[in-house]
Amino acid sequence: MAPTKRAYPRATLRKILKAHTNKNISRHTDALIYLDYILFIQKLMDNATRKAKEVGEKKVLAKDVRKVTLGTLREFRG
Q1: Which single residue of 11, 12, 43, 76 has CA 20 to 30 Å from 53?
Q2: Do the beta carbons of residue 76 and residue 43 sit within 8 Å?
């Protein structure tokens, strides 16, 4: 059976996590953190899209993302 391609660079993510936390990381923690990151980005874009439509824009601009970033961060605080 051929090996499957990883959805994210696991070794790179583990190095980043270890460098920023100075703690050992259990085996599947990096996958959970990556999934949380993906959910955050998806929610951020949903909120930015909603904000852009309220203003009447056809495209999501950087200013729309900036306006909803703080609120999205508060939702994921925990």
Answers
A1: 76
A2: yes
* Distance from C-alpha of 18 to C-alpha of 30, rounded to nearest angstrom: 10
Give the residue carrying structure tokens 């998806």: 42
Structure tokens at 45: 């874009």
Could you give phi then psi for residue 7, rounded to 5 degrees? -80, -15
Which amino acid type is present at position 40? F
Cα three-residue angle 69-73-78, rounded to 5 degrees: 180
Structure tokens at 60: 């999501």
pTM equals 0.78
For residue 50, give both structure tokens: 């909603």
pLDDT in tens, 4-33: 676 778 888 888 888 888 887 888 888 898
